[in-house]
Design goal:
Largest sheet: 8 strands, mixed
Number of helices: 8
Distance between the termini: 160 Å
Oligomer: single chain
Strand content: 25-35%
């Protein structure tokens, strides 16, 4: 009986010993660093802290002081002007029942050196106690632009994914021990992009060619129809002598019984007032018509009617 009780007690003690480290681990803070390299030489930093729900979180002022002091030290070390976008400071916290996740972020200006088609960075990590000035040693992931590829990287990352454009180190202390140097070089569009662009140009060319063909076909049909209508008019029309402008006015007068208002002649002949007046003056001089004023208008008579009267 005593032996069985002793065995049970030993088993309980062993379970406590096993779960105690896990409990302590769950209460510890775990940090991850993420750096997004930008083509303009800036870098977007995100620091994610996973901690116990009761763990403290830096105020925005304390966070700004940490980052500002670090950037100033890096600027002094590298001998190039650096700064932080004041509007980029952010702290976001998410709390669950037993844990707290806090993300600190900021935009580091002039983090990389731009050399022609290359981006070079890593010298800032030689600042004394670089990551200890932030949130200590942790895993680090660096992401770079899709239009760049890695030319060289020191020290060798634990993981490197060229398709995802990422470099990863399990410990940041690996970057501060030696001389960290990463060189990215601009790369041309990949074959798929070039192929897609070529296909787009072909599609545009086909659309333009089809549009031009339809336009020519429509123009041809229009001309053909217009020619057919013209021929039909010529066939159906009776031969007639070409009519002069003066003759048109005389014809209007004859059709109106030999007398018309000058304003009516303007309207029916569709000549301008000046043109009509000029033609009537010519006809009046050669004796074809006579005119006399009536109110604001003039009455135009064929000479033949006047003589007949």
């Amino acid at each position: 009986m005593k032996a069985s009780r002793l065995a049970i007690c030993c088993a309980i003690c062993l379970m406590l010993l096993l779960f105690l480290p896990l409990y302590k681990a769950s209460c510890q803070t775990y940090v991850e660093y993420s750096i997004q390299i930008n083509t303009d030489g800036s870098a977007l930093w995100k620091i994610t802290s996973f901690a116990n729900v009761n763990a403290s979180v830096d105020t925005i002022s304390a966070f700004q002081d940490k980052v500002s002091n670090l950037v100033d030290a890096a600027s002094t070390l590298t001998h190039r002007v650096m700064s932080v976008d004041e509007n980029s400071y952010q702290i976001n916290t998410a709390i669950s029942s037993q844990s707290k996740t806090t993300e600190y972020s900021f935009l580091w200006q002039n983090f990389s050196i731009i050399q022609g088609k290359e981006l070079v960075f890593g010298d800032v990590f030689q600042v004394n106690s670089f990551f200890n000035q932030l949130y200590g040693d942790a895993a680090l992931q660096i992401t770079y632009p899709s239009s760049f590829s890695v030319k060289s990287v020191t020290p060798t990352p634990y993981q490197r994914d060229d398709s995802a454009k990422t470099l990863e180190w399990a410990r940041t202390q690996d970057l501060v021990i030696g001389n960290t140097d990463v060189i990215l070089t601009s790369t041309p569009l990949n074959d798929n992009s070039s192929q897609n662009e070529w296909q787009l140009y072909v599609l545009i060319g086909v659309i333009l060619a089809v549009g031009a063909a339809l336009s020519l076909a429509g123009f041809y049909m229009f001309r053909r129809r217009k020619t057919s209508l013209s021929k039909a008019k010529v066939i159906n029309a009776e031969p007639a002598e070409l009519e002069t402008e003066e003759g048109k006015i005389l014809k209007l007068l004859a059709q109106s019984g030999g007398s018309m208002r000058q304003s009516d002649i303007v309207e029916q002949s569709r000549f301008s007032k000046a043109k009509t007046s000029q033609l009537l003056s010519i006809l009046e001089k050669n004796g074809s018509i006579t005119r006399y004023k009536k109110g604001r208008d003039k009455i135009v008579n064929l000479t033949e009617r006047v003589n007949g009267d």
